[in-house]
Structure formats: structure tokens, C-alpha cells
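Entry:
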Amino acid sequence: MMKAVLLGCLLGLLWGSPVQADVPIQANFDNSKFQGVWYMVAAASDDKDFLASKDNMKMPISFVTPLANGDLSVKTGYPMPDGKCQKVDTTFIKGAMSGQFSNPGMGQEDIRVVNTDYKHFAILWVKMNKGGVQKVMLQLYCRAPELFAEGAQKMQMLAPKVNLNPSQGAIFPKSDECSKALPK
């Protein structure tokens, strides 16, 4: 009888929701070192809207400013197909741990700086709630508008651990539409 109960529990765990590894947070994350310009050179997600548009996207640029309360002000320019730049100002609200944030206004329940060297790259993991459906995204940011090999390798290693595969990702082409739209 006890074996049947244990087997039932194990099968329930295996057949339940998809397994997702615990997503790490950068040790000793430092807001002040994270400030400045970041280019989103690549991303991967299971979000259907991202998947439908990823092949037409160009490289967004963000300007990050740490706030006194531990939050991050993030000003992002998204290059648009018509050659214009859509500017979005958001605040990443400090979470329970240093390097963990949220952005409720955009449905981003959990934003984690997974890995960064502050000088070349940063990998962010974002858990979103879109219409009651949980989605995840990995984003590779670089200080220059080009792929940084070490960051790309670390993102490739993390992707399967968060149930993402190469077909769900994109490397974005460089764009000049937003380069003058944000402070530097």
C-alpha cells in the first residue's frame, strides 16, 4: 500500500507542470556597477507574441539608473519597423534578494540578473504573466551592440534549464534608430 502511494506521488510530480530548475541570481549583485547603457543583443522566450515577432525585431537599447531605494530606472528604446524609436520608461522594483526585481506594470513578476560581469554582458531571466499564462524569457544584454561570446555561451547553457530551446531565440541586428533617443 505504501509503495503505491509513493509511486502515485512520484508519477504526479513527473506528470505535473513542466520542471523548471531554480533560476540563480548573480551573487553580490551591485546596482551601481549595473548602471549605464545595455544593448539587448539576443533573447529567447516561450511567449507566443515574442515568437511571432522575433525574426523582425532589431536590437533594443536600455539605459539603467539605480535608485536610492534599490529599484532600477530602466529607459528602453525599441526600434520600430517604420524607422522610429518607441521609448518605454519603467521601474524594476527591488525584490527579496539583491539582483531580483519585478515590473508589475508589464506583467513581469520575477526579473533576475542571472549572470553579469558588469563590463561586457548580463543575462536576465524574466517570468511573465500574460492573460493568466506563465511565460519565461532569457535576455542577453551587452555593453556594446554586438554579441559577447562568454555571455552567449552562458545563456546557451541556461536555456534548457529553464525549458527554452534554440528555435525560441533570436539574435537581433544592430539598429541606429534608438541610439540618440536615450541618455548615455
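The radius of gyration is 18 Å.
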